[in-house]
Records
---
Amino acid sequence: MKGPRSRGAIRVRPGRPIRLSAIDPDSTGGFEGKDAARVSLDKDLDRLRERQRLLYADGRHALLVVLQAMDTGGKDGTIRHVLSGLNPVACVVTSFKVPSAEELAHDFLWRIHKAVPPNGVIGVFNRSHYEDVLVVRVHQLVSPAVWKARYEQINQFERILSENGVRIVKIYLHISKGEQKRRLLARLDEPAKRWKFSMADLAERKLWDKYMDAYEHMIRNTSTAEAPWYVLPADNKWFARLVMSTVIIDVLDRLDLEFPKFDRPALRSMKRMRKTLRAE
Ligand code: AMP
Ligand code: MG
């Protein structure tokens, strides 16, 4: 079931069954607590900044981070922390909500494809095309034949993207039902968090087991070599942030990014330009 780990993240090997109930959402990968992880997170954020500059300068690849989680799973906070300090020019976050009438009149990947980041840019999907095999399945918004066919459609779509320079990392923030209860209560208790609460959250919570089944099935059918799923223990927000930054750095490191190279004639003309500028 388990694949290679990036500091506590579980990379799901293609075709392997996974059991979410066997993965501890409360794991902290050996870190004692938030303060102990602070130095590592700060270092990671610096490394991420460096890699982002290189991705932008290199210009041959985009990075797409797909984020999925149950309500209160920590998607927004993780995005806020992990992307803090990155160059906003080369970073785009897209949140996918209930599809509009126009979006529903198209194939489910229409709105997704438009949001794929261009070369040089890090794109994050806050929810994604995976809702079209999750919420849609749990609420029976389409027939089983329709959502089942989407696994292969998604795999093909992601293959096309990856063959065209888009590196895809898919992250599932794994929280426990108990932690969700704590976070929902915090949203009700704390005035500054109330705006995040939605009545629908409680209805969705009742469907927890159905969602877990849908997530397991979806991860098993769509974790591919070119676009793997990572399951991140996320009951501890600080740990999920740390692990997510590490996963992204690892992926960027494997891209062999480099600053553009210049041939001799280009270097010679730069030399001339330098001379001209200096003499000005
Ligand atoms: P939030 O992330 O709290 O802003 O909520 C967004 C809502 O949009 C969630 O309840 C999602 O399940 C829902 N949503 C996102 N994509 C889809 C989709 N393709 N079909 C139906 N509902 C969706
Ligand atoms: Mg919500």
Note: The chain has a mean pLDDT of 95.
---
Amino acid sequence: MVPKIDILTLFPEMFEGFLNTSIIKRALDNKLVEINIHNFREYSLDKHKKVDDYPYGGGAGMVLMCEPIFNAIETLRRDNTKVIMLTPSGKTFNQKMALEFSKLEHIILLCGHYEGFDERIKTIVDMEVSIGDYVLTGGEIPAMAIVDSLTRLIPGVISSESLVNESWNDNIVDYPNYTRPEEFRGMKVPEVLLSGHHKNISEFRDFERKRLTEKSNMMNLEEVDNEK
Ligand code: ADE
């Protein structure tokens, strides 16, 4: 089974660099994942290909209309499809979700723009996802973040060894890495890493993972405190 991802957007050109670079490009070339970009404007039945309109009740901006998005999803959806709406009010994305998504047969990612979606579009999606508590101009960057993180977890895309100790598996971060030179501007590589003593190296890395995880969790807590 090759996971298939359909992305619905009004700005397909935003994905060009993303799909044609590095690991994502290689995964596509090796047919380990299939990614299709669709402009949902093409699913508008309006003669001017209209996709948005003024909000009922007044207010700023334009709202994405139901019809083009319902048409696009109904055309692309199959039996095992998960339809995901990208919205700042959705469930916050994390590594566990990336792993779950990497095992799905077919995903449709719906990218919004303007003031957002007509609320009724939520009735045709399976899940609403946010990549964090901040507002972007659209769902394209969130879609890229999600596709990037799930694609690298598809078996064969990167070496399985790279995935073992990385950050946020089991909610802990990766250990710190160093490469040559041994000393840079007075900063030395920890002695133990030069020792060739595997048990000590492994203990050092475990200790550092715990220390850096606590530090990362503390930094996030401090932010919450500041908001009080
Ligand atoms: N669209 C705009 N901001 C977003 C966010 N933070 N996550 C997902 N979709 C978005």
Note: The chain is about 35% helix and 20% strand.
